[in-house]
Specification:
Layout lengths: L1 H30 L3 H22 L3
Length: 59
């Protein structure tokens, strides 16, 4: 059972790192003036954040 919790924690950390990359990507698209893409990226970031919260068991 402990292995399951370790695996969940590892995936949570991976998703948090991915969320940071997604944030940076969104900022880049906004700076380029590509608003529609930036909005899609922002929605993706929100979904990843929800997944992180679920893995933290804070949902």
């Amino acid at each position: 059972m402990l292995e399951v919790f370790k695996a969940v924690e590892k995936k949570r950390k991976e998703l948090e790192e991915l969320r940071i990359i997604i944030q940076a990507t969104g900022i880049t698209y906004r700076q380029r003036g590509e608003r529609s893409i930036a909005e899609h990226v922002e929605k993706l970031e929100e979904q990843v954040e929800k997944a992180v919260q679920i893995l933290r068991m804070e949902a």
